[in-house]
Amino acid sequence: MMGIDDKDDDGNNEYVTAAPSNDPIDTNVVTLPLNISVSSHHHCVVCRENVNSTCTVSDEDRDLLFMQSNIFIPKGSRCCPDHVVDGRLINDNLNKIRPRDIMQTSFSATDILTWLGKFRNHYNSIRYFDFDPPFSMSESDCYNLTGISKANFDHLVKLLADSNIKNSSNRSFRNAVGLFLTKPRLGISNKVLTTIFQFSNSQAVSRTLAAVRQAMLTHFVPHYLGFNHISRQEVIDNHSSPLATQLLTDKPNTVVLVIDGTYLYIQVRNVLTIL
C-alpha cells in the first residue's frame, strides 16, 4: 500500500511514501517506488509536448532533479531545445518537471553506493553564491550581488569565454566573473569575499579579480566602452535627445555630448595666491 502526497513542505515537489511491509528484503537488490517522469523520444520531459529533437536530458540534470525533488528521469529522455542552454536544462524548466508514474525500480548494492557518493558530492559542492549551471540563484539575488540580470550575466560570460580564465580548484570560470562583479557592487573586502565564495585565502581572490579584470579590458571594454566602440552616426540616431539638440544646436546632424566632470581628477597647487 502506498500513499501519494501532492506537495512537500515547500509546496513544490511531489513525492511518494510507502507503507511498511513485512516482506523479506533481498540483500543484493532493493526495490523502491520512484516517481518517474515522462520518458519518450517523442514527448518533451518538461512540457510533454510532441518533440522532434535529439536533445536529451544530461546526466547531471537527471541526478540533480532526483536529489532535489525525488523525481527520476530515465536515461535518454528528450526535451525541447528551447529548454536547454549550454547542454543543461534551465533551472526554471528543471523545476517544472513533474512525475507521470510510480514505478518499482530495483537498485543493486553498487547502485546504492554510487548514489550515496553522488549525494555526498552534491552536498559538498553546495554554495549559496553559485553562478554555475543550473544557475539556481534567483533573479533578485543575482541583481543584488552583481547589479545585472541573469540573462546579462550569461551574455557577459559568453563574451569572456575566449579569455585565459580557466576553472581551478578554488573556483569555476563563472564564479570568477560573479566574484568580480560582486566586489564593486557591494564594496566589501577580499577577506569577506574569501568567506562568501569559499576561497582558500584572500590572495586567491586577488589573483581572480586581476585575471577577470584583464579579460574585461580585452573582451568587453572595446565593444561597450570608450569612444571607439560606437560611431558618430549611431550616437546621433540612437543616443541624442531631441530636447538637448534643440537647446544646444540648430543643426540636426550634430552630436550633443554632455560630460559630467564632478569627479575628474584635477591637480591643485599647494600654494594659492589670493588676489
Q: What are the low-pLDDT stretches, counting only 5+ consecutive residues below 50?
A: 1-19
The Cα radius of gyration reads 27 Å
Order of helices and strands: EEEHEEEHEHHHHHHHHH
Q: Please, how many domains?
A: 2
Main β sheet profile: 3 strands, mixed
User: Strand arrangement, largest sheet?
Assistant: 4-3-7
DSSP strand tally: 7
What's the pLDDT, averaged over the residues? Answer: 80
Distance between the termini: 99 Å
The number of helices is 11
Query: Percent of residues in helical segments?
Result: 25-40%
Features:
11 helices; 275 residues; alpha+beta; 3-stranded mixed β-sheet
Task: Kindly summarize this structure in a few lines.
Strands 4-3-7 form a three-stranded mixed β-sheet. The chain has helices at 59-69, 91-94, 109-125, 139-146, 150-159, 173-186, 190-196, 202-219, 221-224, 232-238, 242-248, and strands spanning 2-5, 15-18, 29-36, 71-72, 84-85, 88-89, 101-108. The protein contains eleven helices and seven strands.
